[in-house]
């Protein structure tokens, strides 16, 4: 295909990335913009060809690589040409799954095709075996095609079941889809169900911790249900899932309190990366324990920090001293500088507590996950 004309047209299109918004587009051509998102904008060239223009080279390269990995499958748009900031590709027609399911049922046949799609993702080497329903298109012959696959590769962390697909389906279609999965493969449903239960428990633990009060015993008890007793290599998957849930819930909390969610996510990711690096540097053989029981996650320190976060400067010095005398006997010392904390502004206190909480929770989950793997 001759793409020389498209290349000339693209030079007159400017796409600028915006923070937490769809891109800004300056189109000085006759090309009709079909739509835009966070990474780029798509323009109509012919009925069968479109061009996607990106706001930065990294997003463009990432999408091109992801599309290239699946060119032999027929599931993805054909790529005709690409440059630093654009990709010329096949126009995917049909009806997206979001619109289709508004009026049509989710049949076993369609569920089987969705599972085949996930299998294809895994076979070609995608890291995220998942996709949102609005990016899945049903064709006239019943086959599926997908778009916007950049986020399936070059990921630092993934979750071990199709979380985005199930969530986007909605409760009714989700239950239908899972019933079909059970009929096709009970083992697959069992694995997915395990991680879904872990996610719910992670949310429950987070909620209890955030409420504060005398929740320590409840949290200790419920945390035991996060432990796995089989021999599968799923400890790292559980850690990734817990991190995903914790970050999402913590960002929601900070957003409700007027904090900048991007700064919160960045800080959590920085602490997580530092912890992983530290663990890799200090890896040592672990002696097998004679006691087959696994140690439960101890949330004592985390609960103490959240209690202070929820009730800052409300108790008098005597109450604080009494509480400190009781807890210091069994609790580890916090890394927060008390004098600096007392003089800090509310925003600075929030930042210090977020850092401490994230670091401690992630460390405990990593330690417990490593024991579980043994």
Order of helices and strands: HEEEEEHEEEHHEEHHHHHHHHH
Mean pLDDT: 78
**Biggest sheet record:** 5 strands, antiparallel
Structural class, by secondary structure, is: alpha+beta
Q: Would you identify the regions where 5 or more consecutive residues have pLDDT less than 50?
A: 285-299, 314-318, 326-333
Helical content band: 40-55%
Instruction: Walk across the major sheet and give the strand order.
Output: 3-4-5-7-6
Strand content: 5-15%
How many DSSP H or I helices?
Answer: 13
Number of strands: 10
Measured on Cα atoms, how large is the radius of gyration? 25 Å
Note the overall shape.
globular
Distance between the termini: 56 Å
Could you characterize what this model shows?
With 374 residues, the protein is α+β, with helices and mostly antiparallel strands. Helix content is 52%, strand content 13%. A five-stranded antiparallel beta sheet has the order 3-4-5-7-6, sandwiched between helices. A three-stranded antiparallel beta sheet has the order 8-9-10. It is globular, with a radius of gyration of 25 Å. The termini are far apart.
Give me the secondary-structure topology.
Blueprint: H1 4-10, E1 13-18, E2 21-27, E3 32-36, E4 40-44, E5 49-54, H2 57-69, E6 79-83, E7 86-90, E8 95-96, H3 97-100, H4 108-124, E9 136-138, E10 144-146, H5 163-184, H6 186-211, H7 216-223, H8 235-256, H9 261-281, H10 300-310, H11 317-327, H12 338-343, H13 346-373
Antiparallel strand pairs: 1-2, 3-4, 4-5, 5-7, 6-7, 8-9, 9-10
